[in-house]
Write a structure and sequence with these properties.
This protein has 122 residues and is an alpha+beta fold. It has a 4-stranded antiparallel beta sheet with strand order 2-3-1-4. A hairpin with a 4-residue loop joins strand 2 and strand 3. It is elongated.
């Protein structure tokens, strides 16, 4: 019985690690190079924060969401803090909105993993 518990625990840990690695591969494959945004341009952009449920790891989940947001047209900066479950995004309001950024977050990993529970402009 003890061996069965150990095997189950080992399988659960491997599954957790594999899921993060798979998402990490997506990030590398879909990474888009963007021109650097100047400090002046960032200062003109609006800032919003999004509370995200469903993240299970910093390197796979949070980094994947951060890269997807940063790759969007009109996004100057995106930072996802895994510990607080909050994404902070600086964006051009003429090209993006809270709704479009929410859809981007919720569409990551096939649309089944992440849910924005709160969004607000700062």
């Amino acid at each position: 019985m003890k061996n069965l518990k150990n095997i189950g625990l080992a399988l659960l840990m491997m599954l957790s690690l594999v899921s993060c690695k798979q998402e990490n591969k997506e990030v590398v494959a879909e990474e888009v190079k963007k021109e650097a945004v100047s400090e002046a341009d960032l200062a003109k952009m609006q800032t919003a924060s999004f509370t995200i449920d469903g993240m299970t790891c910093a390197m796979g989940c949070a980094k994947t969401i951060e890269n997807k947001l940063a790759a969007q047209e009109g996004v100057g900066q995106a930072v996802v803090d895994f510990d607080t479950k909050i994404a902070t995004v600086k964006f051009d309001a003429e090209k993006q909105s809270l709704e479009s950024l929410t859809k981007t977050i919720e569409a990551v990993a096939g649309g089944d993993s992440y849910k924005v529970t709160e969004s607000k402009k700062m």
